[in-house]
Amino acid sequence: MNETVGEYDLPLSLVIFSIVFLAVDIVFGFLTNFLLLVTIYSSAHLRTPPNFHLVNISVSNLILCLSLVFSLVTVSARPEAISAMKTLTSIQLFIVSNCSLQYMSAFASIGIYRNITMNKLAMCLKARKRIVSRSIVCSWVISFLLSLVFGLSHMRNDHILCDTLNPFQRSFQDCSEPSAFAAEQITVVLLVIVCYFIGFVIVFRSYYTICKTLNISGIFRRSKIAPWNRTQRLSSESTSEITSARQYSPEEMSHSSKPFTLSDSLCEFVVHYQKNEHMLAFEDIFALENPMLAARLQKKLSEKKPLGPTLSNTSTTTTRSRAACNFTDISPDADLQRIQNMKNASALRNQSLRRDRLSLTSATKNSMIMFFAYIICSVPFIICSIPGVLQNLDGKARIIVLVFCRLLFCLNACVYPTWYLIFSKRVRKCLFRVFDTALLKLHLRR
Fold first, then answer.
1. pTM: predicted TM-score of the whole model, two decimal places
2. Which one, of 224, 220, 221, lies nearest residue 212 by Cα?
3. Which of 418, 353, 411 is CA-nearest to residue 380?
4. Interval 188-205: pLDDT, tens
């Protein structure tokens, strides 16, 4: 602290730590985002509408890396050495607020897109691209306008120790107490808080619906009934005495307990079954494997399909029979061919739905992990930016808290692409293919 001019200099140890952290983050941010963009562009399997959101996040990461370059300049140089120091700090605040809002909008858009496409599986590719493009354009417009107004409203007091939101400066003007917030600053902050609240509500509601539909968590049903397993060599006459009512002893948990028994004096067979809490019924297994198909089939149980003209027994060239009414060919060859076609269509449909469900589940888990990483890295800085949160701290402690919260926010630039490049199997395979192609073109590998 310089008592004569009323300035506070950032501690040298904190300056060195910030410079090293920012430099490493810039290198990893540019490298990982560049690799992810090249991988998506080079692979036709990754150029899908959902991955446009991933490209949007990578572009935001590159813009954030540009802001980190400005932060590296302002934290390492004295204010007298740079004439446009105030402009650089204002640009940093604008870019940081824009990227934070853009991340929130991107995760909300991903949740909305997953929710819509999960309920409308037959949606064409053009409609999917339209939804993604409109959501990206709207998110950029909203985040740009809000961050611009937010940066302009805080530009005036950015060099004051008690009011600044940009801690990456070498020196600050000392103050005894924070300045009073203007009406426009409070209005802008309230608008930003409302946008964050709406985004969090959309994300949590969308992923709750998705997880509930995909049965990612939770028990489908309880108290299942499973057949009673017994040795085939044991005849039904050698079992215990059979009564005409149900027999069940809930307190007896040993293997010698009597199972449920259904019988009748006129029946020639006996049915045994036991209560089991860890089994699933056939309908439940089908619903778990194909939840969307099961829901559609449940709705179509009561619907009647209209019968159309089919081939007759006496003709193979016309779809109408010589009789007055139309009927279906029931010859053995036609019946066998019809059953085979139904089996093939059912197998293909089940395979497609199972593949879609697995891919949707994997994409949902990746999106949820990215959103939780955003919460960990961004929420502390967002909370500290609210007026009055750090008013009980003195100027020095406030700057130190802002520095660490801002450095934590800077991790957003490399966390998301690193996760996809390492833990996404499809992206990792495409990345290795890109490396192999590059080595072949450079004649470094045969």
1. 0.68
2. 220
3. 411
4. 889 999 999 999 999 999
Q: Of 321, 334, 326, which is closest to residue 307 (Cα–Cα)?
A: 326
Judge whether 235 lies within some domain: no
Q: What's the mean pLDDT in 124-146?
A: 93
Banded pLDDT at 287 (limits 50, 70, 90): low
Is the distance from CB of 248 to CB of 258 less than 8 angstroms?
yes
Bridge partners for 178 per DSSP:
none
Q: CB of 71 within 8 A of CB of 77? A: no
Q: How crowded is residue 8: how many other Cβ atoms within 10 Å of its Cβ?
A: 17
pLDDT reading at 259 higher than 60: no
- Indicate whether 367 belongs to any domain: yes
- Residue 211 is predicted with a pLDDT of 82
Nearest to 323 by CA among 307, 309, 333: 309
Domain that holds residue 131: 7-214+359-441
Alpha carbons 101 and 446: distance in angstroms, whole number: 47
Length of the chain: 446
Domain for residue 27, yes or no?
yes
Q: Identify the helix (H) or strand (E) that includes residue 200.
A: helix 183-214
Residue by residue, DSSP assigns 73-105 as HHHHS-GGG-TTHHHHHHHHHHHHHHHHHHHHH
Q: How many CA atoms lie within 13 A of 112 on its CB side?
A: 20
- The total number of structural domains that make up the chain: 1
**CATH code at 192?**
1.20.1070.10
